[in-house]
Amino acid sequence: MSELLETIEVVTAPNPTVAIIWMHGLGADGNDFVPLVNELDLAGLPAIRFVFPNANTMPVTINNGYVMRSWYDIVHADLGRREDEAGLRASQAQVEALIAREKARGIPASRIILAGFSQGCAMTLQTGLRHPEKLAGLMCLSGYVPLADKVAGERSEASLGTPIFQVHGQHDGVIPIARAVASRDLLTALGYQVEWHDYPMQHSLCQEEIDHIGAWLKKVLG
After folding, report:
1. Which one of 4, 59, 193, 198 is most buried, counting C-beta atoms within 10 A?
2. What is the pLDDT of residues 27-51, one digit of tens each?
3. Dihedral pair phi/psi, residue 167, rounded to 5°
């Protein structure tokens, strides 16, 4: 078992009964979404432990081999071509280890949400669709389903009960919205319940999205 990833933790109240493991995008780190906790409307929700892991560093091909935090290598601007399957699966194992730690700390899988932005969104889906237990939800921000041709054969039966929240920017120049729509349609065809929103933004977040995240959290954790 590899060492657990470094994480930043924010607890909304003592003795949390919910965990949200939130993964950053390429070149960012766990600090990226920490400020968002205070922007979310969490009124009425139980105590939550937000866990923000740091991906390991690696040379990223598309960035001329520059070493940065990355969940997997990106070999081609067309994200569906020559995917780094080994890297995706290695990071999947690291995310699974974080899920296992939350369970060891007393939070059941059914109260654990995986969340992520961009590459972190890809890891949310890579891990969550294959996790052998129903999770509380998958929060998928500005990303896509990686290894899409393998999902039907590898997804767990339990994951079909995991609600999915998927959002994307209409003007995203990093991950075109067409890729996200294709991912949504794949998930829907496989029988997943997907709540979808898109916004007039680029590869980022907006206030309407933050409001929708808060509302969705209340729906799946209520």
Report:
1. 198
2. 999 999 999 999 999 999 999 999 9
3. -135, 155
172 annotated active-site: yes
Examine the residue annotation and report whether 118 is marked as an active-site residue of this protein: yes
Contact 175, 80 (CB under 8 A): no
Catalytic residue among 32, 73, 84, 172: 172
The rounded distance, in Å, linking the Cα atoms of 182 and 178 is: 6
Per annotation, catalytic residue among 70, 73, 91, 118: 118
Digit-coded pLDDT (tens) for 107-120: 999 999 999 999 99
Catalytic residue among 24, 131, 168, 203: 203
**How many whole angstroms separate alpha carbon 144 and alpha carbon 178?**
10
Are the C-beta atoms of 128 and 56 separated by less than 8 Å? Answer: no
Q: 14, exposed or middle or buried, with CB in 10 Å at 0-12, 13-18, 19+?
A: exposed
